[in-house]
């Protein structure tokens, strides 16, 4: 880490000399100026991490210089010093942009405590910047691993949404399909990317606490509210709020959320004034909200306000072509994490993975890949490292297509009277699914139809 550069602006030569002697002995770089005007020019030319600023100097007062220093570099630390300090002067200095306040005379133990605190804050700020940069690099549309045309189409739509100022987006899809990845990618590729992205899982908190988290609360609003707290909508000002599992909130919370969407204002719990906000709201759910509206468990007006822009992420079982490319990515990721050198996966294991139903979607595939990398001792991942529920797929015998279904089952007995073709088709579908342990890929292959056709007929016959 580079040496901390400290700028001292004070008209007393002894003060400047003391700072140089004390701080340079600790390895800090110290530069100094005897007036506000000289200090400003020096700061513009050389910069500084931390400024110790006297107030009473000839020419411009230190308190007048603070906003000018902030205009050059808003992140610089400013410690305001004066021998004529009052509480009012301290408040004024802090309002003007000072970070700290110290009264003369002071000892360098005080100064060292201030510098140590600033260094910790600087370190945390740097870590936060690195984390945010990594988040932006990780969550972009370019980094969404896929081979499915369906996902390509959704990415195209999402990119367009990211570039608009659409304030409400609804993402539907089963758990584990990547709704949060798309939400973050939309934020990171939008004009709001440099503002906060905050997430709350609506089902993770009791209703009363959920309101406090979303809208904030005033001091004394309820037992335990010992101080004012800003809500996520205020914290995310200018950015994005991601409301995951939106289908789990109750009617009372739904009403308040609708008001936020309509009026772009929030009121803290226990508060009496409305606070204007500018945020994009992305909501996600694995529930069928349309069905919830029909059952009157979810408000129709909120549903339609959320779905100004809406898209659905298909489950992994409907896009088996994504399994190999996702698996390759996860193998590379976990190879690095666990210092392994797995080069690939054998065909038998790959076939089991592609044909598996993936009830947990991409999240489950990630977990399976992590487990397999840990267990595999060779350079090629084999089926023995896969969980039992996936390996059981191979226990289901698959007949030759030419054999047909007749040798495995007897269809509707014609002697019992007239039957419809629909009844016969339904039974054939049921038998095929039974024989393949409900594996849609194998069943569709057995019947000589596409998986889409199979899914349509399952829905038609309510199988």
From TrEMBL:
Domain of life: Bacteria
UniProt KW Phosphoprotein keyword: yes
Signal sequence residues: none
Keyword Phosphoprotein (UniProt): yes
Residues passing through the membrane, by range: none
Keywords: ATP-binding, DNA-binding, Nucleotide-binding, Phosphoprotein, Transcription, Transcription regulation
Occurrences of domain Sigma-54 factor interaction (ranges): 144-374
Domain Response regulatory: 5-119
InterPro entries, per database record: AAA+_ATPase, AAA_lid_NorR, CheY-like_superfamily, Homeodomain-like_sf, HTH_Fis, P-loop_NTPase, Sig_transdc_resp-reg_receiver, Sigma_54_int
PROSITE patterns membership: RESPONSE_REGULATORY (PS50110), SIGMA54_INTERACT_1 (PS00675), SIGMA54_INTERACT_2 (PS00676), SIGMA54_INTERACT_3 (PS00688), SIGMA54_INTERACT_4 (PS50045)
Modified residue annotations for 4-aspartylphosphate: 54
PANTHER family in alphabetical order: ALGINATE BIOSYNTHESIS TRANSCRIPTIONAL REGULATORY PROTEIN ALGB, TRANSCRIPTIONAL REGULATORY PROTEIN
Name of the protein in its database record: Sigma-54-dependent Fis family transcriptional regulator
Organism: Carboxylicivirga marina
